[in-house]
Each structure stands twice: as structure tokens, then as C-alpha cells.
Amino acid sequence: MTMPPSTPSNIITDQMRSHIGVESQPATYEISRWDVARFACAIGDSNPLYTDEAVARDSALGSLIAPPTFLRSLLPGPSESPFPEPFAHILDAGSNYRFLRPVRVGDSITVTRSLKELFTKTGRLGEMLFKVREITYTNQLGQVVAVQETTIITYGEPDSEAAASGLGEA
Description:
Layout: H1 14-17, E1 27-30, H2 33-42, H3 53-58, E2 87-99, E3 108-123, E4 126-138, E5 144-158, H4 160-165
Antiparallel strand pairs: 1-3, 2-5, 3-4, 4-5
């Protein structure tokens, strides 16, 4: 990965760069029938592959599965050290997913996150820091079931309180 050349206005520090590629602690979740059914109901998805064991068993998948967006409810473990966030305001700039395998009821899914890239841009909000993170979801067989790439934008006045609290975690 090539970082943009450092300029006097570039707020990316060596300490921030040291977080690139560092994986968070893993967090593991047991995927239960109840959690999947509750999630499917909450998003208004009545697909019987999420709730009807007989239909799911007779399908090509052979068992109950979770809706793809269910993964969004599984959070990675904390980072070893807080990201030195320079700004007070945060925006979610979106996510891209690659779904590789179905998540099945009974699976154990382990979630980790790492910082993939940092860059800055200047816009009408002033200087903005872009953090591109990769979240990996792996089942109990060691198979990656999905990868999420998410971009977070922070901007505004420097926020020493957020940096001290770890709220800006990579």
C-alpha cells in the first residue's frame, strides 16, 4: 500500500500508521436459531431458510442459515491499543461486503478487524481523515465466510478526549 506523500497539512502520524495491519482481538459468537429468527423478524425478512427447519433442511443449503446482514450484528474484539483519533466528529462512509459462504445456525463465527488504509482529503468540512477497515468473519472450520470493508471519516476540531478514551479506535 502506498501512502500519500506527507505534507505540512497531512495529519497522519507515524503512531497512526503503526495501527495499519494490526488485527484486533478475536470475538467469537455462537449462532443460535433464536438470534437468527429474531434478526430476520427485526429486518422484516420472512425467508423460511432463516426460520423453518423443514424447508431449510430440504433446500440446497441443507440447514437453517442467517441473513447475510446478520453479520453486521457481530462485533470484533477490541484493539490492543486505542487509535490516536485527531478529530471529534465521525461519519460512516459505507461498507462493501464479500459473502463467501452461508452462516449456519450452530456455527461459531470469529470476528476480527484490522486497519487497512489511512488517507486524508480536504473538503467543505475541512481536513478529513479516512480510515479503511477490514472485518473478517471466520467459521469454526477456519473458513472465511465474509469480509467487510468499511470506511470511517473523522473531521473537525482536534478531540483530545476521544483520543484519550479510545473512541477513535481503529
